[in-house]
Amino acid sequence: MNVTLECIPCYIKQTINTLAQTEITEEKAREIIHGTLPLISSLDPQRTPAENSTIILRRANELLGIEDPFHKAKKESNDLALELLPQLKERIQKSADPLLMSLQIAVAGNIIDMGILKDFDVEKSIQEALAKSFTRDDYVSFQQSLNEAQEILILGDNSGEIVFDKLLAEQLLEYGLKVTYAVKDQPILNDATMEDAAYVGMGGQIRVISNGSGFLGTILQDCSPDFLDVYKSAGLVISKGQANYESLEELGKDDRRLYFLLRAKCEIVAENLGVKLNEMVFCRS
Fold first, then answer.
1. Which residues of the chain have pLDDT under 70?
2. Which residue numbers delimit the Damage-control phosphatase ARMT1-like metal-binding domain (predicted)?
3. Whether 277 contacts 29, CB under 8 Å
4. Residue 114: what pLDDT?
């Protein structure tokens, strides 16, 4: 998925949200924003929005002198999600279709994206998500694919959300699958890292790996050889969130292993998916 002119305001908004995680002065914030603006004119329009966003955000972090501006916010997101864990487990256990329920909960968790939304109501989002169905829904074909796969790879997205992903991974284990969960190697926005995975207890039978990259989304050419081996050998791949969709959507047209699980949080992504803004999808490309 290539960038459009509408992506440019989002680059600036993400930078502002990053600066809002710190205690710098407004004058310093303006200085940093101005320091990132020259990069925008030189961005490659053939790159994905996730790649270009990363370039801008890395520059902002350099000017800030802070490697992980979202560190505190990520812990707060994880803590909030962990508080909800018991009631979510109960909903899955009581569901007529626990796997489908865990997929819906994982999408509900996708609202915890501070790169786009500064304020969010997780509990309300979960209730709204569980009251709706996927606008694009390839669940039936996914169930059929499960019978043929031995290994499944989940491409993680955000902190906080990783707690909901853990419930999905646990359900997939019930199908006798080997489940691997991939996180970022370096901090970028509020994306989950190995530190977050350890904090929320993701592990045990669920293998957790780094993708070797610090880019938003999954930019395969920037990922480690070890991750690529896992990616290529997986029978199924669940791509979580919007940035992963942006970076893998073109590949998904030829790779039928790829299923995208997300909420469309911007008009361009929604249009690309053929859905309305904020609608939820679980689909092949």
1. 112-122
2. 6-281
3. no
4. 44
What whole-number distance in Å separates Cα of residue 149 and Cα of residue 154?
Answer: 14
Check: CB of residue 209 under 8 Å from CB of residue 226. Answer: yes
Bridge partner residues of 259 (DSSP) = 238
* Cβ–Cβ under 8 Å, residues 114 and 190: yes
3-state secondary structure of 62: helix
- Residue 109, token pair as written in the block: 């968790």
- 234 CB contacts (<8 Å, ≥6 apart)? 149, 151, 152, 153, 180, 257
Distance between CA atoms of residues 191 and 214, nearest Å:
9
Q: Which CATH class is domain 86-283?
A: alpha beta
Catalogue the long-range contacts made by 230-234 (C-beta closer than 8 Å, 24 or more residues apart): 230/153, 230/180, 230/182, 231/153, 231/182, 233/151, 234/149, 234/151, 234/152, 234/153, 234/180
For residue 231, the SS3 value is helix
For the record, the structure tokens of 26 come out as 């407004």
| CB-CB contact of 254 with 269 (8 Å) | no
Alpha-carbon span 40 to 8, nearest angstrom:
7
